[in-house]
Design the sequence.
């Protein structure tokens, strides 16, 4: 059993003892703490929006969350089966005090989580998260008396509102998409993307849609993280040669992966790169100033290359959506996100959104006149090797990273999030886990062999330093 209390929310496995898993007692305690915090932050706003993905535990957790918020004295608007970006948009649309998304994102079926949103529909900051956790730890919240209980209502309209907002975006061209007569395959891993993605595609004029795992039963047909090794079904379907593009989303529809017409993965890192290319190209074509972009430090430098091609600046943030959004706002970025297929398009909202990513990518693909594989070949080709090294609990991970920084002091080094070492266009990024004695090691090069070599070299360095210390 596991319960992880982080600054952005609470996630854990269902069942077990309180404090060791995401039990009903834990759900109530942390929801009450967040509700109390919201009342302090926004005393004039008395509403909270909630929504959930399709997990088997979702309905149970949702009922606990709604009742607890009512008990704190807050009104609840329940979107039911929804997506993370839909809930984010509904928070601002309903002028709510905040929101709670009930999803463990790409985690397996036994997990669920409370993801916490502020009044702007964005994930709460590190300091705000710490404050909520402190309230939960001391249980310094009070429930209201019976005449002050919050009200509860459901609202099933926000998914359509979300789609309508996407269709209204100037860079989304429904006619161009409909004109290509795309044949698309969708894998929604038996969650709410099975509802949302087909609705969006139909609204965009796509008539030929093959659905894989689109029934939102919550009984995931495969590991829900949209990585190539988990997508054998849709890859096999695409290899039949009867479709133009495969679309894959994670359970809460904030990550987007694409499969080319020949069954080859477009590359999760290149979802953002391709959409950014389209957005930046459009700005350049109409004579607007170059646009800036942001991705996290573990994302491909291909986004930097594409951004500079159009005269813009690329900025790298610490890992995490909150950090990406903060840097996007600071640098007026027109597009940003993370290399896991998360696209943040501020003309809609500051949150990862697979639905807007689908609409922008299909517009780009339609106007390019190319196949998906041909479009992919127009971008700089880099390979990322993702590794980790598990350490014993007695090892000081911070000290290990500090010694690596010293060893490579002659190279450009960025330390805003772990240690990132630059080697011309190659890089290695080391980050410690917040919950385990693990160092994650990502490296990138123009060949996978070189990326793997760089990662192995750093892993060997770490082991040597640990051995010397002992």
Sequence:
């Amino acid at each position: 059993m596991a319960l992880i209390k982080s600054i952005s929310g609470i996630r854990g496995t269902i069942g077990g003892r309180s404090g060791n898993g995401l039990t009903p007692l834990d759900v109530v305690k942390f929801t009450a703490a967040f509700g109390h915090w919201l009342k302090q932050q926004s005393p004039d706003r008395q509403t909270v929006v909630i929504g959930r993905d399709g997990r088997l535990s979702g309905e149970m957790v949702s009922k606990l969350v709604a009742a607890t918020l009512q008990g704190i004295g807050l009104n609840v608007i329940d979107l039911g089966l929804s997506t993370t970006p839909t809930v984010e948009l509904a928070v601002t649309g309903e002028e709510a005090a905040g929101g709670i998304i009930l999803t463990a994102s790409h985690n397996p079926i036994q997990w669920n989580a409370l993801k916490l949103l502020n009044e702007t529909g964005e994930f709460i900051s590190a300091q705000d998260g710490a404050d909520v956790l402190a309230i939960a730890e001391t249980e310094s919240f009070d429930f209201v008396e019976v005449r002050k209980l919050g009200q509860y209502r459901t609202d099933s309209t926000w998914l359509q509102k979300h789609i309508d907002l996407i269709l209204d975006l100037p860079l989304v061209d429904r006619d161009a998409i409909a004109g290509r007569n795309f044949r698309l395959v969708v894998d929604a891993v038996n969650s709410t993307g099975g509802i949302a993605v087909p609705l969006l595609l139909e609204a965009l004029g796509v008539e030929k849609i093959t659905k894989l795992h689109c029934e939102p039963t919550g009984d995931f047909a495969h590991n829900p993280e949209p990585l190539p090794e988990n997508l054998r079904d849709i890859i096999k379907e695409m290899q039949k040669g009867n479709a133009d593009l495969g679309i894959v989303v994670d359970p809460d529809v904030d990550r987007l992966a694409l499969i080319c017409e020949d069954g080859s993965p477009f590359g999760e890192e290149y979802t953002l790169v391709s959409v950014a290319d389209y957005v930046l190209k459009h700005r350049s074509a109409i004579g607007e100033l170059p646009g800036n972009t942001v991705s996290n430090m573990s994302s491909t430098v291909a986004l930097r290359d594409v951004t500079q091609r159009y005269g813009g600046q690329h900025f790298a943030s610490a890992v995490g959506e909150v950090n990406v959004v903060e840097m996007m706002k600071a640098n007026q970025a027109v597009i940003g996100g993370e290399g896991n297929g998360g696209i943040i398009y501020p003309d809609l909202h500051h949150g990862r959104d697979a639905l807007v990513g689908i609409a922008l990518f299909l517009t780009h693909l339609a106007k390019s006149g190319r196949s998906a594989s041909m479009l992919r070949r127009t971008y700089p080709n880099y390979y990322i090797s993702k590794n980790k090294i598990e350490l014993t609990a007695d090892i000081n991970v911070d000290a290990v990273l500090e010694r690596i920084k010293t060893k490579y002091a002659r190279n450009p080094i960025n330390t805003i999030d772990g240690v990132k070492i630059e080697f011309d266009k190659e890089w290695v990024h080391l980050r410690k886990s917040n919950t385990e004695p693990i160092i994650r090691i990502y490296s990138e090069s123009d060949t996978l062999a070189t990326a793997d070599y760089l990662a192995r070299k750093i892993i060997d360095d770490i082991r040597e330093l640990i051995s010397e210390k002992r």
Summary: The two ends are 32 Å apart (CA to CA). The mean pLDDT is 94. Residues 2 and 375 are 42 Å apart (CA to CA). The chain is about 40% helix and 20% strand.
